[in-house]
Design a protein that fits this description.
Aldehyde Oxidoreductase, domain 3, Ald_Oxase/Xan_DH_a/b_sf, AldOxase/xan_DH_Mopterin-bd_sf, metal-binding, Ald_Oxase/xanthine_DH-like
């Protein structure tokens, strides 16, 4: 016994294995005029690409419970830098990454909200409001001897993962079955969305979780 754990990315390569790399938006808010994959597809080792047009239905491209208001692949417009637009499939991870950078996207840039102040000014808020109130806050401030006001700012924070997100998809020979090795805390949700994207019943998708090198809601 060595105590060494095997994570998803440690699984030995399989025959005819392909690697996927996201094509991500470089704009904060823009309309996609056109996408040219030709330069990427001409690279040796690049097999194909997938985007919203490969989804079996418009509903299959949606996720993000409970409202299902997010999309796997951008649908004509991007709303943040780094939003997924497509995925390149290639015979190696390095070639997939290189090809993803070679995809040419023509954007029509749209106004973007980049600060809290801009969001307040434009009243750009999530439609769901939750408040927790206890006691008389206004009265407490009114009766204070001194009241100090100011602004505190904090940058975004992330946990330091032992592994990044990874998934190995192994198609089976019968009835559209597939086995997924995924670094997920929600195997049921992974099964549900994979079945929708592949347009098969959920019982044909088998999700296995090897180890988790990150969690904490990250």
């Amino acid at each position: 016994t060595t105590g060494e754990a095997q994570y998803t990315d440690d699984i030995p390569p399989m025959a005819n294995e392909l690697h996927g790399c996201w094509v991500l938006s470089t704009k904060a808010h823009a309309r996609i005029r056109s996408i040219d994959y030709s330069k990427a597809l001409d690279m040796p080792g690049v097999v194909d690409y997938i985007d919203r047009n490969d989804m079996p239905s418009a509903e299959a491209n949606k996720f993000g419970p409970p409202n299902f208001d997010e999309v796997f692949f951008a649908e004509g417009e991007v709303h943040t830098a780094g939003q997924a637009i497509a995925m390149i499939l290639a015979t190696s991870a390095n070639r997939a990454q290189e090809a993803a950078r070679a995809v040419k996207i023509d954007y029509e840039e749209l106004p973007a909200i980049l600060t809290m102040e801009e969001a307040i000014e434009k009243e750009s808020f999530h439609p769901v409001y939750r408040e927790i109130k206890k006691g008389d806050t206004e009265g407490a401030f009114r009766d204070c001897d001194h009241v100090f006001t100011g602004t505190a700012r904090m940058g975004g924070q992330e946990h330091f993962y032992l592994e990044t997100n990874a998934c190995l998809a192994v198609p089976k020979r019968e009835d559209g079955e597939m086995e997924l090795f995924a670094s997920t805390q929600n195997a049921n949700e992974t099964q549900t969305f994979a079945a929708r994207v592949c347009d098969v019943p959920a019982n044909r998708i088998n999700v296995r979780v090897k180890r988790l090198g990150g969690g904490f809601g990250g």
